[in-house]
Amino acid sequence: MIRIGVIGDIGSGKSYVAKNFGYPVFNADQEVSNLYKKNRKIFRSLNKLIPKYIVSFPIDKREISNAILANQINLKKIVEVVHKEIRKKMKLFLNKNKKRKIIILDIPLLLENKINNKKDILVYVEAKKSKIKKRLKNRINFNSKLFNKFKKIQLPIDYKKNKAHFVIKNDFTKKSVKIGVNKILNQIVK
Fold first, then answer.
1. For the domain that residue 177 is a member of, what is the CATH number?
2. 143 has a pLDDT exceeding 80
3. Residue 114 region, left (φ>0) first, then alpha (ψ -120 to 50), else beta?
4. Contact 132/172 with Cβ under 8 angstroms?
């Protein structure tokens, strides 16, 4: 099985690029969202650790945001609880798709949390900062303070780009992404 990890800056279009490969995608952001909505065990754990912020089930993302904005330690607590479960979900995904030729890992902190394997093919999604900012500001729940907190826990963009085996330039058109994805697939699927 070939594992392709899609990495890049916040808002660069990693999930869109991941979907365009046409293979099973493990989308960590979606999995986290599902945990907040459906997993009572996660709720109980977070409620125990930060009861002032996590008060009701399903967990409202605003509760998570408020906890993170109030205290950097809260972010560490949330990550500790959530990432254990995400790793389990990823393991299930990998087992379910073990006979597949290729799988895609769309995990924002893939390198930061050392989730990648040495054999993983890393694809860096590059986009202009101005386009990223415009896209982020158009998101319904965009919060610049929260954005800055998440930027602080990410590895530098140049480091990620240098670690990547391939770079896809995303100008947020289907054509540019498809061309980039096809070039990569043509090189790795021979």
1. 3.40.50.300
2. no
3. left
4. no
Whether the pTM exceeds 0.70: the reply is yes
On whether the CB atoms of residues 9 and 132 are closer than 8 A, the answer is: yes
Task: Please list the residues that pair with 102 across neighbouring strands.
Answer: 2
Cβ(153)–Cβ(112) under 8 Å? yes
Coil, helix or strand at residue 30: helix
Residue where a domain stops, chosen among 96, 124, 141: 96
Instruction: In whole angstroms, give the CA distance from residue 166 to residue 74.
Output: 35
Q: How far apart are the C-alpha atoms of 110 and 190, rounded to whole Å?
A: 26
For the stretch 78-124, pLDDT in tens is 989 998 999 999 999 999 999 999 999 998 877 677 777 789 999 99
